[in-house]
Specification:
This is D-cysteine desulfhydrase. InterPro entries: ACCD_DCysDesulf, TrpB-like_PALP, TrpB-like_PALP_sf. One of its GO terms (molecular function) is D-cysteine desulfhydrase activity. This protein has 13 helices and ten strands. By secondary structure, it is α/β, with parallel strands linked by helices. It folds into two domains: about 20-50 and about 155-350, Rossmann fold (3-Layer(aba) Sandwich); about 50-155, Rossmann fold, CATH 3.40.50. The strands form two sheets. It has a six-stranded mixed β-sheet with strand order 1-2-10-7-8-9, with helices on both faces. The radius of gyration is 20 Å and the shape is globular. The structure holds pyridoxal-5'-phosphate (PLP). Pyridoxal-5'-phosphate (PLP) binds near residues 212, 215 and 217. Pyridoxal-5'-phosphate (PLP) binds near residues 152, 308 and 309.
């Protein structure tokens, strides 16, 4: 497998790597379906974890290399990206300014004071709620010189984190069960040996990666990384922020930009965008999401979130039940984090 050269880009270490890759046998059995693995990027180790940690390693690596002292970023009131940026800035001694928008149709006290936004303040970030472009311009003026990170940390620099993540996954994935079932009958030492062997094993044992997609840096980085590593895995990107067509355009543009930044070919037909699990909109509960969050919790003890990973999980469940993911496939569900968001949606999970 070839490896794109990520070492040319400044990076600051913020997470615990590699994040675990776990088999979900009970979930697979429950669905009567594919071999499901879960990539635990909810366990990145930075203030409740999540997918923004990988992007921030490159974004803040660059901010430090350029000598910045202040970081500005944007998000929804319950932005996981804002919370992880706040944590990373605290750790690096940077001033963190968060410009948050009411992009979910809620204004209740729980939504506006708990979950991620509670943690933003705790982590020492300054939170400003902005309503429009004028508010943003005024805030930026007042803040002064700063390293500005786009929403979701999604530009080509941030997406490099997920190019690296794709390579990380491919070094972890076990050979198909016909060749080895390391966790059946093997002792811990043999398991470890198999795991090390698999690091040089054939890439491409994964058929699909299922992941929630909003600002697209995660899907774009994965697409470039998987393609460069010679894996055949398809990225099933589940739109959770805007409809499929718009999401597809954003994914394609950022995939191309990321490939250009790395100086590698732009991958073609690598990402399928699914729009059927968005429901009425961003941050709005759907019955499929609630069911999937319960299913993961009760079969695997894994906590998803209502806005992102829960809708991606609903897509995984729906695609398996519809036979669009075959029972003989190997699927990696990429857990992107979002735990604090669970606590601002209590009504979706009663009973
Ligand atoms: C931001 C986020 C995503 C989406 O990632 P993008 O790179 O913005 O597409 C998915 N899940 C969670 C929990 C997130 O916070």
């Amino acid at each position: 497998m070839t490896t794109p050269d990520l070492t040319a880009f400044p990076r600051v270490r913020l997470g615990h790597w590699p994040t675990p890759l776990e088999r979900c046998d009970r979930l697979s059995a429950e669905l009567g379906g594919p071999r499901i693995w879960i990539k635990r990027d909810d366990c990145t180790g930075l203030a409740a974890g999540g997918n923004k940690t990988r992007k921030l390693e490159y974004l803040l690596g660059r901010a430090l290399a350029e000598g910045h002292h202040t970081v500005v970023t944007f998000g929804a009131v319950q932005s996981n990206h804002a919370r992880q940026t706040a944590a990373a800035c605290a750790r690096l001694g940077l001033r963190c300014e968060l410009l948050l928008t009411r992009s979910v149709p809620r204004s209740d006290e729980l939504y506006e004071t708990s979950g991620n936004v509670l943690l933003d303040g705790l982590l020492g970030a300054r939170v400003r709620i902005v309503d429009d472009a004028d508010d943003i311009a005024a805030a930026l003026e007042e803040i002064g010189p700063a390293y500005v990170i786009p929403p979701g940390g999604s530009n080509a620099v941030g997406a490099l984190g997920y190019v690296g993540a794709a390579l990380e996954l491919l070094t972890q994935i076990q050979p198909p069960p016909e060749t080895a079932r390391p966790d059946q009958g093997a002792g811990p030492q043999e398991q470890e040996a198999t795991r090390l062997e698999s690091k040089v094993g054939p890439a491409g044992a994964v058929d699909r990666v299922v992941v929630a997609t909003s600002t697209a840096g995660t899907a774009a980085g994965l697409a470039v990384g998987l393609a460069e590593a010679g894996s055949a895995a398809q990225v099933e990107a589940v739109a959770v922020y805007r409809p499929a067509e718009e999401t597809r355009a954003v994914v394609e543009e950022l995939t191309a930009e990321t490939a250009r930044l790395l100086g590698v070919p732009v991958p073609e037909d690598r990402v399928t965008v699914h729009g059927d699990w968005l429901g009425p909109g961003y941050g709005v509960v759907t019955p499929e999401m609630s069911e999937a969050v319960r299913l993961f919790a009760r079969t695997e003890g894994v906590l998803l979130d209502p806005v992102y990973s829960g809708k991606a999980a609903a897509a995984l469940v729906g695609l398996v039940r519809a036979g669009r993911i075959g029972a003989d496939e190997t699927v990696v569900f990429w857990h992107t984090g979002g735990l604090p968001g669970l606590f601002v949606y209590p009504d979706a999970f009663v009973g």
